Amino acid sequence: MTIHFPFQNTYSTLPANFFARVAPTPVASPRLIKLNLALAIQLGLDPDLLSTAEGTEILAGKLVPDGADPIAMAYAGHQFGHFVPQLGDGRAILLGEVVDKEGVRRDIQLKGSGPTPFSRRGDGRAALGPVLREYIVSEAMFALGIPTTRSLAAVVTGEAVMRETALPGAVLTRVAASHVRVGTFQFFAARGDVDGVRALADHVISRHYPDVRSADRPYHALLEGVIARQAELVSRWLLVGFIHGVMNTDNTSISGETIDYGPCAFLDNYNPAQVFSSIDEMGRYAYANQPRIALWNLTRLAECLLPLFDDDKDKAIEQAQFMLGEFSEKFTAAYQAGLSRKVGLFTARDGDEALVQDLLDAMAKNDADFTLTFRQLGNAAGDEADTADVRAQFTDPVAFDDWSKRWRERLALEPQTAAERKAAMQAVNPAFIPRNHRVEAVIQAATNSDDYAPFEELLTVLAKPFEDQPQFAAYADPPLPDQRVTRTFCGT
Ligand code: AMP
Ligand code: MG
After folding, report:
1. Of 79, 382, 453, 455, which has fewest CB within 10 angstroms of its CB?
2. Residue 2: predicted pLDDT
3. Quick check: helix, strand or coil at residue 373?
4. Hey, which residues does 107 pair with through a beta bridge?
5. Distance between Cα 46 and ligand 2 center (Å)
6. Ligand 1 site residues, Cβ closer than 6 angstroms
7. 126 CA to middle of ligand 1, Å?
8. How far is 277 from 333, CA to CA, in rounded Å?
9. Which of 91, 93, 488 has the most ligand 1 atoms within 8 A of CB, as the residue to mutate?
10. Does residue 223 sit in helix, strand or coil?
């Protein structure tokens, strides 16, 4: 029985300098550790067949399925502000594209499947820890309703990868609207290849922004579209306490999905300056810096598109600056509206912005847990007698009391019942996020003891982040002082 993937590949029909044709490197003895059944079905794949030995060999890169056209994509990128003219898929191989049940074209990519012409010094492999982290966090983001790449499968390869120590190797099957990044545009722009930039723009327009084809100026409308999606995306990150950790231009997707989960993490206590990534020494990608960085990355994209805007460079720059100037407003509108929803407001009034900002300031000063504060605030909105929990989030509970008085006065101006308000709040304030210490515990159990039970259980909990799930209540808890994970690593 041969497994059929309904591949329809378009990226590999683009000019030859867009990619390198390269097959995955077979691995010793692959073992399937996770298959995402719902996603497989969504993609039109048969999960039973994918679970067979043959399916596992495909998901490990040992067997290339019919219809695949394996390529490593070329891209460049600014890494921590420094431009690298050639990066490219150094440890990932795009098998091909399938059109899913909703008619959306999606890339199926193996990550950790061996060297490519873009690998340079790297081995093209991935360690189990980062594969599990990406699987968990990307699926958690999906359940939170945030645009993201997905994880179809994880396999262990049966081979060790050398990092600081020898670690079990693994391959993640990643599914994305596409893998075109800001850095992909930079690759061609840096070579003065305007035809390449145009061909890429046309590809992403037909794939991600089909509506702009009928715009007066489609390439301008493309930039506006990417700006709008990034503004929305980063607002969504902030509203759940997500820190991407490596917002380099090569990790910024043109489709508006969250991509490239490396040293990413969620806030426990609210601290706008929070950084987890061990390589982010200057705090460039700190929690509250993310909107600024998104705009910086979009500015790099705009620079690539200038030749498509106008032959007169000054005019093109002026047009780009105008569009980039709208990012702030778009981001702030999405972020403020989201914050208002988090505190249970149904309408907008003067003073709302200050009200939520004062809560955030009090949370930061009083070491309040970001996720739990909002979740418990929802309980308090439902029943004033349920205020003790949220109050206890604040080292000085009086800080909450002062704020709460103003909040209750503001709520009283709206007609909704307490039950309606609580329901609306619990639908946007998750109880469960992939807390760092939980992710770390999963990785340790899998890496050290070949034990995937914690991984499975965490995935189960995170699949329903907005439900209370009393049997898993402990997963909502922040880490105890000795469980705190303060540093995360790329693990590449
Ligand atoms: P990332 O940190 O995942 O955004 O990767 C940055 C660049 O390094 C990309 O071009 C990757 O393909 C490449 N890279 C990361 N890890 C490896 C590896 N183990 N082998 C080869 N290339 C890698
Ligand atoms: Mg990357």
Report:
1. 453
2. 76
3. helix
4. 97, 176
5. 29
6. 87-91, 118-119, 122-125, 246, 250-251, 260, 262, 490, 492
7. 9
8. 28
9. 91
10. helix
User: Taking a C-beta distance cutoff of 8 angstroms, is the pair 177, 208 a contact?
Assistant: yes
Average pLDDT, 10 consecutive residues per value, the chain (492 residues)? 88 98 96 98 96 97 96 98 98 98 97 97 96 98 98 98 95 98 98 98 98 98 98 98 98 98 97 96 97 98 98 98 98 98 98 98 98 98 97 98 98 98 98 98 97 98 98 97 86 64
Say which ligand is closest to the CA of 86: 1
CA of 253 to the centre of ligand 2 (A): 10
Give alpha helix (H) positions in 343-430.
352-365, 370-382, 388-392, 397-411, 418-426
Q: Which atom of ligand 1 is nearest to the CA of 92?
A: 12
As given in the structure block, the two tokens for residue 152 are 């179809």
- Residue 71 phi/psi, 5-degree rounding, is -140, 155
pLDDT value of residue 345 = 98
* Alpha-carbon dihedral angle through residues 292, 297, 299, 304, given to the nearest 10 degrees: 180
pLDDT, position 489? 82
Nearest-CA residue for ligand 1 atom 11 is 90
CA 321/CA 331 separation, integer angstroms: 16
State residue 485's pLDDT score.
87
A 10 A CB-CB count for 322 gives 11
pLDDT for the residue 1: 57
Report yes or no: 31 and 156 within 8 Å, Cβ to Cβ.
yes
State the pLDDT at residue 129: 97
Distance CA 108, CA 100 (A): 11
CB 369 within 8 A of CB 435: no
- Helix (H) and strand (E) counts in the chain: 17, 12
3-state secondary structure 73-133: ECCCEEECCEEECCCCCCCEEEEEEEECCCCCEEEEEEECECCCCCCCCCCCEEEHHHHHH
Q: How far apart are CA 126 and CA 131, in angstroms?
A: 7
* Among 89, 103, 110, 114, residue whose Cα is nearest residue 25: 114
Ligand 1 center–CA 369 separation, angstroms: 33
Our measurement of the distance from residue 151's CA atom to the centroid of its chain's CA atoms, rounded to an integer in Å, reads: 11
* Ion ligand 2 residue ranges (Cβ < 5 Å): 251, 260
